[in-house]
């Protein structure tokens, strides 16, 4: 905005929003409360972050931090029941998201249209598990190995880098060239998007 516009009371605002899965209103195909397989995700430790800070202070080393925007939507949506069968999740879109075909179908049938959920959404009972599976697959493919007893830490022996992951926060420490190579190895198309 120009100075005169600011003087007239115009304020430049930045808004942030999040689309969430309505986990409090989940039904199966019969209208009953839906159940999901047990899900868990790895723990992270404050001591791991402190360890990376210490490693980054060793002469010749650096430390860098990044986050994965919209982390859960970076992971594909899939669910298996106890027999190993895939269980699909469908969501009802709010009316303002309906296209013309959905409006027509609703007018003809009286039923609200649904769409199959292809990406994990914040609020889904298994969102953390899907995201953890995604980033662990990416870091393992890049050559990182999980550190025993530290579910959130990964070591890349060739690059001489340690990586800590706490939900969508990635923290890395090691040699400058190793850290640069490691970021390239885990980010990009079909990998992890970070900023």
Highlighted features:
single chain, 195 residues, alpha+beta, five-stranded antiparallel beta sheet, two-stranded antiparallel ribbon, 5 helices, elongated, disordered N terminus
Q: Can you give me a brief rundown of this structure?
A:
The protein contains 5 helices and 7 strands. It is of the alpha+beta class.
Regarding quaternary structure, what we see is single chain
Which strands sit side by side, in order, in the main sheet? Answer: 1-7-6-5-4
> What's the N-to-C terminus distance?
27 Å
Percent helix range: 25-40%
Rg is 22 Å
Structure write-up:
With 195 residues, the chain is α+β, with helices and mostly antiparallel strands. It is 27% helix and 18% strand. It is built from five helices and seven strands, in the order ααββαβαββββα. The strands form two sheets. The chain has a five-stranded antiparallel beta sheet with strand order 1-7-6-5-4. A two-stranded antiparallel ribbon has the order 2-3. A hairpin with a 4-residue loop joins strand 5 and strand 6. It is elongated and about 70 Å long. 21% of the residues are buried. The N terminus is likely disordered.
Secondary-structure topology with pairs:
Layout: H1 3-7, H2 46-56, E1 61-67, E2 90-92, H3 100-109, E3 114-116, H4 127-141, E4 145-147, E5 150-156, E6 161-166, E7 169-175, H5 176-186
Antiparallel strand pairs: 1-7, 2-3, 4-5, 5-6, 6-7
